[in-house]
Design a protein that fits this description.
This protein is α+β, with helices and mostly antiparallel strands and 175 residues long. Helix content is 24%, strand content 25%. It folds into two domains: 1-39, no CATH class; 40-173, endopeptidase fold (from Nostoc punctiforme), CATH 3.90.1720. Strand 8 and strand 9 (153-158) form a beta hairpin.
C-alpha cells in the first residue's frame, strides 16, 4: 500500500514537472529521501543560498570538507550552499576562477563569489573563495569557511580593512 502511494506521488511530481518545464525547478540533493522544489528566479536563488550559508555559521573548517556534519573548506562551503538551487560549483577554489561571469568589484551583489589568493604569498592563483552577502552599494561583506587560527570555520567578514583586501582577485556571478 505504501509503495503504491510513493509511486503515485512520484508520478504526480513527474507530470507536474513536465507540465511546468523541468528548467523551472531545482532539487535538493541532501539527506531527505523526498526532494523539495525551489522556484528558480534569481532573488529566490540568492535568498536560498544565503539562508543556507547563515544556517551553518560557526561550522568548523575541515580540509576537503563539504558538509555541515564534517565541516567545510572554502570551496566545499560554496558547493554546499549552491546545491539546492541547481548550481554545481567547482570543488576547488582555483576551479571557480572561470565559472560564471566576471563582475567588477563595485557591481558585486549578494550571491556573487569573491575570489582571493591563497595564504602563500608566492602563489598568484586563486586559493580562497567566499559568498558576497551585502547588497550592491553597501560595504562588501562575505561569508566563507576560514582556516585562520583567529577565525576558524564558517564566518562573516567585512572586506574593507581586512586581511583579504591585499589578496583580492575578483568577483564571479554564477546565479
Amino acid at each position: 500500500m505504501i509503495k503504491l502511494m510513493i509511486i503515485r506521488v512520484s508520478l504526480a511530481l513527474t507530470v507536474l514537472l513536465l507540465l511546468l518545464g523541468a528548467n523551472s525547478f531545482a532539487f535538493k540533493s541532501s539527506d531527505s529521501p523526498l526532494p523539495y522544489i525551489v522556484p528558480v528566479n534569481d532573488s529566490v536563488k540568492v535568498d536560498t543560498v544565503l539562508k543556507r550559508a547563515y544556517r551553518v555559521m560557526g561550522t568548523p573548517y575541515k580540509w576537503a570538507g563539504c558538509t555541515p556534519k564534517t565541516g567545510f573548506d572554502c570551496s566545499g562551503f560554496v558547493f554546499w550552499c549552491f546545491q539546492p538551487v541547481g548550481i554545481t560549483t567547482a570543488r576547488s577554489s582555483s576551479g571557480l576562477y572561470n565559472q560564471g561571469k566576471k563582475i567588477e568589484f563595485e557591481d558585486a551583489e549578494a550571491g556573487d563569489l569573491i575570489l582571493f589568493k591563497g595564504t602563500d604569498s608566492r602563489t598568484k592563483g586563486v586559493g580562497h573563495v567566499g559568498i558576497v552577502v551585502s547588497k550592491k552599494g553597501e560595504p562588501l561583506k562575505f561569508v566563507h569557511s576560514s582556516s585562520s587560527k583567529q577565525h576558524w570555520g564558517v564566518i562573516e567578514t567585512v572586506y574593507g580593512g581586512s586581511y583579504y583586501v591585499k589578496r583580492y582577485i575578483g568577483i564571479r556571478r554564477v546565479l
